[in-house]
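Case study.
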Amino acid sequence: MITLDTVLILDFGGQYTHLIARRVRELGVYSEIMPGESSVDDVLARRPGALVLSGGPRSVFDPEAPRPDPRILEAGLPILGICYGHQLIAHIMGGAVHRSPRAEYGRTRIHVTGESALMDGVPREFSAWMSHGDVVSKLPEGFSATAVSESGLIAAAESPGRRIYSVQFHPEVAHTEHGREILRNFLFRAAGLSGGWNPGSRIPAMVEYVSREIGPEGRALCAVSGGVDSMTAAVIAHRAIGDRLHVVFVDHGLLREGEVEGVLRALDGVGIRNVHFVDASDRFLSALSGVADPEEKRLIIGRLFAEVFEDVASGISGIGYLVQGTIYPDRIESGASGRGSDRIKSHHNVAGLPEKFGLRVVEPLRDLYKDEVRAVARELGLPESVVGRHPFPGPGLAVRIEGDVTREKLAIARRANAIVEEEFVRAGLYGAVWQAFAAVMDSTWVGVKGDRRELGRVVIVRAVTSEDGMTADWFRIPHDLLATISKRISEEVPGVVMVAYAATSKPPSTIEPC
Ligand SMILES: Nc1ncnc2c1ncn2[C@@H]1O[C@H](COP(=O)(O)OP(=O)(O)OP(=O)(O)O)[C@@H](O)[C@H]1O
Ligand SMILES: O=c1[nH]c(=O)c2[nH+]cn([C@@H]3O[C@H](COP(=O)(O)O)[C@@H](O)[C@H]3O)c2[nH]1
Ligand SMILES: NC(=O)CC[C@H](N)C(=O)O
Ligand SMILES: [Mg+2]
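After joint prediction, the assembly is written out as follows.
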């Protein structure tokens, strides 16, 4: 699916690597992230139009520091180094990097000192976001500095003849003024890429990919949750193979109020005929009984999903494939994107499938971010109720329940989640947040209801804003809305005596509690 104008971002563990990929895509150039130490052959095999070397936590002179294959710098490709990437270029090509006596963190004034395609249309002075302790103290042969920071440190450098550019600051973060222009200048002026990519433009290629994978005779199962990812994957697969597509929707007993009816209605609406609804709630809930560890719960659910899919598949003749709505962040967060990144959570659809899974997995959306999937869904004509639906994790309410999943906690989670969603809709704020939900804690709080002591549960309400679920900020919820939600949950949901609001961003938290 790679076209000529792909930008590959070599990841050295930077905090903002994903933002670089997103910004580049927003500018109309397809981009992907690769491990920073990928070999020159692996990089060139993907026929990139340009490379970006990301930031990273290490010092270039640290013996453990990740390094690019040096031949990459000689391959003649346009390169932009950012922060650690900037330092790597200097270090490898014969310049020098030193521990700076003055670290620069946060907003820093930048002075443009030279003529540079990178700085075209950018004022001679602007504020940029810095986050570094090392500094390039000597540039390699043939490089010149084009900007300095307020402390006189090199902030941008280049060797235009070799089409190698580097910046010490982070053009990809919103706090850097003109960061977008600088990236745009790199892509279109320095690297001469042509742009014009948008997520919708990938629809034909995605349909093509599904047709090719499944072949002219093949039949596939598509696991659908009703979320925008799997609905979009199903519609793409349906375009590709028509009624050779069978959709399976599983009730694992961890769904929200009204969800079964809603999803079946939505499936009917997109014209998919072969729908298999499986009520497997007893099977899932009994397997989860007494299991408190979050990762263990996820892995059990992943395994049971796979078993149910295999059962359904074996009842339909000729099914050899499973189409899933896996998206890019699912793979990244499950630690599947490259070496050295940590597995944060086992998203059931990535890490949960058993090694000997009997069906071949087909994932048309595997390289897209959520907002890009939404753009595709809109383009495909899916209804706004699907396009705008908040993400709901595959393991369902199990990840919104601390400790073991009991019927008591499930009932609380179900009611409390319904109240949160209803009130966000009523306040006109459903579309303003990435997600809004309630989680049920194991801990208790002493309450007093109708003059009687009641040892009740704690429910945590969480609402976040986010672009892609990779990072998130807690939503500054209006107090009136929080008051209504809190009052309704504590009054209407038996067994709850405390409602709290989660005021931590991601990082350091994640969005869902488990
Ligand atoms: N109840 C379910 N029945 C069948 N398949 C499911 C179910 N829940 C999840 N899946 C499968 O797991 C995949 C991942 O779930 P995930 O929640 O990430 O995506 P989604 O539900 O499609 O979208 P969203 O993130 O918007 O909820 C889905 O795309 C689908 O293939
Ligand atoms: O399909 C999914 N399977 C999962 O196992 C899963 N866990 C979390 N999520 C959703 O992913 C986004 C990031 O969540 P976290 O910050 O909690 O990791 C949030 O939007 C979460 O709702 C999941 N989606
Ligand atoms: N953000 C970065 O890439 C930091 C690079 C390097 N670790 C430094 O501290 O200078
Ligand atoms: Mg979902």
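Observations recorded in class. Residues 294-314 form the longest helix (21 residues). The chain has three domains: 6-190, 199-387, 406-501. We will return to this complex in the next lecture.
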